[in-house]
TrEMBL record:
GO terms for biological process: maturation of SSU-rRNA from tricistronic rRNA transcript (SSU-rRNA, 5.8S rRNA, LSU-rRNA). Pfam families: Beta-prop_NOL10_N (PF23098), NOL10_2nd (PF23097), NUC153 (PF08159). This is Nucleolar protein 10. The gene is NOL10. Residues 638-658 have a biased composition (Basic and acidic residues). The keyword Translocase does not apply. It comes from Electrophorus electricus (Electric eel).
Length: 679
């Protein structure tokens, strides 16, 4: 059993096994601490839905794999019967006060009826169903699903009636008011359509998608209705696929309250607790219990596995959950109500636990952080069974911790022993006459604090608070001057950037003390209007000075970091050159020298241009450079028959024109001779 307190409300997880990590106790003590209300209260793989009969005697759960239904008798605290089904169950309902009349909606559109002896009848609806409700006055079953129609199946006549046509594309959830039997259906578009079963007409339309988006909420996509639940005659709760819960009064179209789970997961279960005026809403991660009027969180339950369904035992503080786990969870909250009559001993047990609270102590385990694992060199064990994740660190076996600690630091015990001896000696010296001396840790800080105390004593400044005379005399800060882990590193980046500011603050403080001493109780003189006081001028100058000092420190840190990185790279290059190299001689190659092998490897890493230039300089490469490069490729395209005929016709035409052409060269030579004669 696990006990948790959220918002000062005790929650008892009765189905919880051994606490994490598993504490080793004797077998008798383990049996005494274990509480098992119902035997075999689990499923082979996953539980998808769970309900309690109206008489409170039977608990029915649907699960997989293989698809099955299990009934538990609370009078016997054990399994009564188990029935296997043909397909998985989407949801189911109990029509009678006990388990004698059951209705199952399957994932393959089948609706199956079971009586006390077992399977009774099976039928099928036209579309895939998602939810259904039973109207007791007319014996009608209303089915909603991946369709715009609401299918009605009358159990008295044994036939389907005319369906109700809605304006939605798909319907996700439905419910019937237990007082005036108003039927409500939540649609994919984020609306709630209300129908009167007597008239078979729609009487109201409620837009919940727009009302669910309030100030401070972030919604991804259209908020569709995923859950519906009526409360008495006028109350109604609506859950959306984006994780909001809206509480309505049927007389108003605006929600009275909007609560967000802040997980962005669909709300799949809604329940009301009328005695305390609470509403329980659940998604796959958490169950939140809120007050319906103020909206304040009453408490919350966050199981380790995802939640599929929630069932509240009527008139009590018992809650059952169907999880993505073989074990079905059982929670008991005394603040919600007493335990059911079949487990009334829980009230006495919880009262005894409250009178004698016990804290869980893990004697055989050591809590280590990630930094401790890095120090011990055990980061590779993260994710293995040797480390159990818990809060901001891990639990590991104390024997393994001591063994690794001894291997990491063999002289740790000797150092610890010497430190203890030194502390004992220091404690014995306290009784002697004490001389004023500096502590071994944070000497500079101690000197600074002593000077401040001396200045205050010399100036006789009145103290406004007790305990501010000296940190050295305060026992709360004694460890800071004794433990070496608290040593201030003046070379760290944080100290160098904050030291100018701290020093300027100290200077201001000393100046203020001197100014108060000079005043000697006299009133301050009035300042001339429009002229800043000397204190303001000094403060502005001090601000400028410390800003400049911080900038100087930043430049120095930047230069030191660059120098350190350059030195590290230089050291890495030197180590790489001094590191021995191994070469592999391939088959068929002759080993000449290490220089030859290194030259070949160097040429393999060189670019193509460098290799070509080297081969040209050695005369090993003879290429004829052209405009398109040093390589030439000649190819001819295969021509078709039509192209060959066309080219042949062109050649014949040119040959024919060449034959009939008359030469005119003699005219040109004759004109040239006549010109020579004239000149």
């Amino acid at each position: 059993m696990q006990v948790s307190s959220i918002n000062n409300v005790k929650i008892y997880n009765l189905s919880h096994g051994k606490s994490l990590p598993e504490v080793r106790h004797s077998w008798i003590a383990n049996v005494q601490r274990r509480i098992e209300l119902i035997q075999d209260f689990d499923m082979p793989t996953v539980c998808t839905a769970i309900k309690v009969s109206r008489d409170g005697q039977y608990i029915l759960a649907a699960g997989t794999y293989k698809p099955r239904i299990r009934c538990y008798d609370t009078c016997q605290l054990s399994l009564k019967f188990e029935r296997c089904l043909d397909s998985d169950v989407v949801t189911f309902d109990i029509l009678s006060d006990d388990y004698s009349k059951l209705v199952f909606l399957h994932i393959d559109r089948y609706v199956e009826f079971h009586s006390q002896h077992g399977h009774y009848y099976k039928t099928r609806i036209p579309k895939f169903g998602r939810d259904f409700s039973y109207h007791y006055p007319s014996c009608d079953l209303y089915f909603v699903g991946a369709s715009s129609e609401i299918y009605r199946l009358n159990l008295e006549q044994g036939r389907f009636l005319n369906s109700l046509q809605t304006d939605a594309t798909q319907i996700n959830a439905c419910d019937i008011n237990p007082v005036h039997h108003l039927f409500a259906a939540g649609t994919l578009e984020g609306r709630v359509e209300c129908w009167d079963p007597r008239m078979r007409t729609r009487v109201a339309l409620l837009d919940c998608a727009l009302s669910s988006v309030t100030e401070g909420t972030e919604v991804e996509g259209l908020p569709s209705v995923s859950a519906l639940r009526f409360n008495s005659s006028l109350g109604m709760a609506v859950g959306t696929t984006t994780g909001q819960v809206l509480l309505y009064d049927l007389r108003s179209s605006h929600p009275l309250l909007v609560k967000d789970h802040y997980y962005g997961l669909p709300i799949h279960s809604l329940h009301f607790h009328e005695q305390l005026d609470l509403v329980l809403s659940a998604d796959s991660k958490i169950i939140k219990i809120c007050k319906t009027k103020q909206g304040k969180i009453f408490s919350s339950i966050e199981p380790p596995t995802n939640i599929n369904d929630v069932c509240v035992c009527p008139g009590s503080g018992m809650i059952f959950t169907a999880n993505e786990d073989p074990k079905m969870s059982t929670f008991y909250i005394p603040a919600l109500g007493p335990a059911p009559r079949w487990c009334s001993f829980l009230d006495n047990l919880t009262e005894e636990l409250e009178e004698n609270p016990e804290s869980t102590v893990y004697d055989d385990y050591k809590f280590v952080t990630r930094k401790d694992l890095e120090t011990l060199g055990l980061t590779h064990l993260i994710g293995s069974p040797l480390l159990r994740a818990y809060m901001h660190g891990f639990f590991m076996d104390i024997r393994l911790y001591h063994k690794v600690k001894t291997m990491a630091n063999p002289f740790a015990y000797e150092e610890y022993r010497k430190e203890k001896i030194r502390q004992k000696i220091e404690e014995s010296r306290v009784q002697r006459v004490q001389l004023k001396k500096l502590p071994k840790v944070n000497k500079e800080l101690a000197i600074k604090l002593m000077e401040e105390v001396e200045d205050e004593d010399a100036l006789s400044v009145k103290k406004t608070k007790k305990g501010t005379t000296s940190i050295l005399r305060d026992d709360r800060f004694k460890v800071m001057f004794e433990n070496p882990d608290y040593q201030v590193d003046e070379q760290s980046e944080e100290f160098r950037l904050l030291n100018p500011i701290v020093s300027k603050v100290g200077q201001k403080r000393r100046k203020q003390l001197q100014r108060l001493a000079e005043q000697d109780g006299d009133d301050e003189e009035e300042e001339v209007e429009g002229r800043a006081s000397s204190e303001e001028e000094e403060s502005s100058d001090d601000d400028k000075s410390w800003v400049e000092e911080v900038r100087v420190q930043r430049r120095l840190l930047w230069a030191e970091n660059n120098a350190r990185r350059f030195k590290e790279r230089k050291q890495e290059d030197r180590d790489a050159r001094l590191r021995p190299r191994f070469y592999q001689i391939k088959d068929g190659e002759e080993f000449r020298s290490f220089g030859d092998v290194a030259r070949k490897q160097k040429m393999q890493k060189a670019s193509l241009e460098q290799r070509v230039k080297r081969e040209e300089s050695l005369g090993m490469l003879d290429l004829a450079d052209t405009a398109v490069g040093s390589k030439q490729l000649t190819f001819t395209l295969k021509k078709t028959e039509k192209q060959r005929h066309q080219q042949q016709a062109e050649r014949d035409h040119h040959e024919e024109r060449r034959k009939i052409r008359r030469a005119a060269g003699h005219l040109y030579t004759r004109e040239k001779v006549n010109r020579r004669k004239l000149f």
